[in-house]
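Reply to thread "Modeling small-molecule complexes from scratch"

Following up on the discussion above, here's a worked example others can learn from. I took a protein sequence and the SMILES for flavin-adenine dinucleotide and predicted the complex. Inputs first:
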Amino acid sequence: MSGLTEEQRARAEANKAAALARRAALAAQIPPLRDDVTSEIAPQRLRRLNFERVDPRGRYVLLWVQSAQRAMHNEALEYAVQRANEHDLPLVAVFGSTAGFPHANERHLAFMYRGLIELRETLETSRGIQLLAYTPEGGGEPGEVIVAASAGAKEVVVDAGYTRPLRDWRRRVAKGVNRLVTEVECDVVVPLYGPGGGAGRSEPAAATLRPKILSRMPALTRHELQPTSLRRRVLTGAAAEALLLGGEGDVGMAGFARVPLWDSVDACLDALDAAVLGAGVDRSVKPADGYHVGGEREALRKLDHFLATKLNDYARSRNDPSLRLQSHLSPHIHYGQISVVYVAHRARKVAAARPELRRSVDVFLDELVVRRELAINYCLNNPNYDAYEGVPDWARRTLADHSTDPRLFVYTLEQFERCATHDALWNAAQRELVISGKQHNYLRMYWAKKILEWSADPREAWRWAIHLNNKYSLDGRDPSSYTGVGWCWGLHDREFPESAVTGTVRRMSEAGMRSKFNAGVSNYLSRWGEGDGRYRAGKRSAAKAAAESVAGTPGNGTPRAESRQTRLEEMFSKKPKMAGNGG
Ligand SMILES: Cc1cc2nc3c(=O)[nH]c(=O)nc-3n(C[C@H](O)[C@H](O)[C@H](O)COP(=O)(O)OP(=O)(O)OC[C@H]3O[C@@H](n4cnc5c(N)ncnc54)[C@H](O)[C@@H]3O)c2cc1C
């Protein structure tokens, strides 16, 4: 700075300092680059369901929302947005509704529609995407809605489903739609149809699947999926419907009734009823929304709550029935209201930040990913997954050998259903299921094992356990329903020393449970034992109940003050019936 006066030099120094300060302030406002996010959809999650091409005249990309009912961390949604941007077209999301899914009743449908109503609103307000729902007039399956809605589509994108009805729906849609249909596997950590996935390779036990999953989990859960912004937004439902109806020669959505996702849960269920002249929704099981509320927001809240407060003791004490240390995510996972990839990503981040929680995270991931994806592997590779024949040969043989053994107790389905056995602990587990729509993990095993032990016929007992599980549990009708019940009959398990009735199938007893958690079993009994479970479970302070009620965030198996849940006697005011053939 030669030739400058003293004053000029001072001014230049001051300017330089101010510029540096401005730059530092600006840098502080810009979030640091994150290397744990991505908007890319891994190609191994994608699968063509037919050999059709994109339709050059298509006016929109159609997203068939079926199993993944969420706005965040949804690979099917993001892939559909990216395809729409590539074509410079809008995106329309459609849900095909039916009340006729096996075992579906008011409890399941209320949980699901609460989530769908929230999803419609979120997609509209934050993404410029309209979610429309239709149901076939006079009954029918969701795929019929999608075939009609795809008439003006460039191409169709759908999430993946693994039980038989969900696979069949997709297969029929792919056949009925004459443009490209792509399936995106977004509800598993390890995609089953991708290279090295489990489709076509049946895993005999968790031990054989575990190393395959654990070796791939770090890479597959490293990133949090970020939303891709949609260029051609559709701002109203009417505009989206006009897109569906607008093509020359299109028959449009004639024969399908709109389900009002912009309205209330009751309005949606009424629309399902009206479409089949009042014969739609099975109203025999009331919503359990006093205990578990459907929706993505609630699922994310439960995840935060679990990671922050329950993980500490999960490895050590999750089986203690009085501690309620589980995440309660299974109903949300079942309806795709939360992504298991994201849940695993978050849990692994906790383990990285807090090594003392590593063991709990490992145990949690073993349940969430290994056990759950073993269940999916079983459903995909075993055509008898929903029949007694899915139970392993050795187990069916030993149970048949002991089928004429005298039983200490034999109950009918109705006695089981009405919590009317001699065993207070079993009745308590059944009461928790009927009232809250979910059971404690550990009691769930005891509950099913005793149905086997106290029934005249092991095949019938299997059908009853599936029936009760799927009828009352919010997470029922899931691959894990079939492996959970199956495990109690010997599936994915080994033989044990032989005993009467159950042969070499592993047994469980209250004494065994008490030897591990004596106080826990007693506390569970005082919570769910004889009497009105709701009243007993509701022994929290009035202030806490009111606070939860206002926040609308119970969701941990504890009831809300204004619960709609009926009491046990009201639930059984009519004779219980067995729906379908239960497999
Ligand atoms: C007889 C019987 C029936 C079952 N029926 C079902 C069912 O209908 N639907 C269902 O989702 N699970 C079922 N399970 C598995 C398990 O009991 C539930 O997944 C678990 O209780 C869900 O509660 P949570 O989310 O609070 O569990 P957490 O302990 O918080 O576990 C986290 C997640 O891991 C997964 N998970 C945990 N345990 C298992 C398991 N044993 N098998 C597969 N995945 C598991 C679930 O997705 C769960 O949400 C059944 C188990 C048995 C023994």
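What I'd highlight from this example: The chain has two domains: 31-381, 388-532+567-571. The two ends are 89 Å apart (CA to CA). Questions welcome below.
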